[in-house]
Amino acid sequence: xxxxxxxxxxxxxxxxxxxxxxxxxxxxxxxxxxxxxxxxxxxxxxxxxxxxxxxxxxxxxxxxxxxxxxxxxxxxxxxxxxxxxxxxxxxxxxxxxxxxxxxxxxxxxxxxxxxxxxxxxxxxxxxxxxxxxxxxxxxxxxxxxxxxxxxxxxxxxxxxxxxxxxxxxxxxxxxxxxxxxxxxxxxxxxxxx
Length: 193
What we know:
Elements (H helix, E strand, L loop, with lengths): L1 E8 L10 E5 L9 E6 L4 E14 L15 E2 L4 E4 L2 E5 L9 E2 L5 E4 L5 H6 L2 E6 L6 H8 L3 E5 L3 H12 L3 H9 L4 H11 L1
Helix pairs in contact: 2-5, 3-4
């Protein structure tokens, strides 16, 4: 079986910018294209530049296929249309000097979509406005579910999640006020970043 491999360089990370790392990819990539890929033991997404692409059989792979990580996405915002509603993906937003939010955790839309159709895309929890003070949203993310936010408050929640990843105390304080514990807040940070 043939696999596509991408050699990535992570220029924004002083610790590893002088090395190239191999990743599996199912995306149609080109050399010099920018992508997001998991790095390190915590698999936080970082921006990498594609230096080389090879398509080879498993026995000729540049790295053991059982151990290799996968490219998460191409750089740039992703949008998803489900049932006529345009959803914005929370993944791929830079939240500190070199890390980006994870994909397939949270999407939001001003419109509404059928929950069964959303489930086909991996989103097993859906919330409809009003929802800005519903702790179940954050617990659903902690539980590992893809969460779809529908209605006018979705962007407000995305802004709160982004502020939480940036370490803003008021975001954490708000979530504590909803009843989330310290362990849930830590798990939320891991799921998003």
